[in-house]
Amino acid sequence: MKVSLDEPLSKHTSLAIGGPARVFAAPSSLEELNEVIAEWSGMPVVWLGGGTNALAADGPLEALVISTGNLRGIEMLSDNGTGAVLRVSCGEPMKKLLSFCLERGLSGLEGLVGIPGSFGGAVKGNSGSNGIEVKDVVFSVCVMDKKGQTQRLNREEIGFKYRGTSINDSSLIVNADLALGKGKVSREEIKKKMNELFAQKRQTQPLLEKSAGCVFKNPPGCSAGQLIDQAGLKGTRIGDIEVSRKHANFFINLGKGTAQDFLALMELASRKVKEQAGVMLVPEIRILKNAGNR
Length: 294
Ligand SMILES: Cc1cc2nc3c(=O)[nH]c(=O)nc-3n(C[C@H](O)[C@H](O)[C@H](O)COP(=O)(O)OP(=O)(O)OC[C@H]3O[C@@H](n4cnc5c(N)ncnc54)[C@H](O)[C@@H]3O)c2cc1C
What we know:
four-stranded mixed sheet; 3 domains; 7 helices; 17 strands; binds flavin-adenine dinucleotide; six-stranded antiparallel sheet
């Protein structure tokens, strides 16, 4: 397993922002993972999937960053003709999982088309779009604690909520089981639905720019993007970070953007929305920084 020192996190986040991680490793098995954790014991551990929902601080991150990118695999646990159960490893890219389902005519995940990143990251954040969330299909999760102990959690123990779970940040989501439909919808229909939903996303979201998806969670009953738009902030720029003109809840790195500028733009948007709509925005993106740093 390759272990790098002072690995720039800008290379591992969709925003292309982030200073060096003191130690960075991408294990291919739980054995390798436990070895590297033992070797660097005492260091805080940070899990990183696709880095598509993460803002990494500009300075050094004093942590062992574990990329789940090599912990992949999709196993068909059962298939009774009308439904199938899959066990998916955390590092599996969402895009690959959706292709796997399409090839085998498995339905249920179509709404998640276009969500980048890893399956583990999607479970951790209960990612969702088009009216479906990961919680609608996932019924058990295997987690591993810092001591290397694994445990399977059922739905109640996962504690799914809007864009989150109650799984402790120190636990790795190793894999999860999901139940999907089979034979209910034809492969052609699944493909058509995915294509339509993806085309809609392309029209309404800046999918080709450097972003981390939605910056803020939608407050109950309203859209964070609309509130930021109504505050007149579309196109507002701090340094090289800009509020997307296509979707105001996406902040774009135009090239040389920094975490400092990103956070300043978040503060500005929060303040303006609070002033104008009386609503307090809550971040959806995960901020990777040293404990104790603002
Ligand atoms: C263009 C674009 C569009 C997007 N559209 C959507 C959308 O429609 N809906 C939506 O919900 N999100 C969307 N996102 C946000 C993001 O893609 C999702 O939240 C995604 O599921 C994050 O997965 P990731 O692997 O990149 O997580 P990361 O960014 O790597 O990590 C996010 C958090 O999860 C933790 N984590 C990651 N893997 C694990 C693991 N195996 N075990 C424990 N913790 C883990 C990390 O420590 C971090 O706290 C979008 C992002 C972009 C860039």
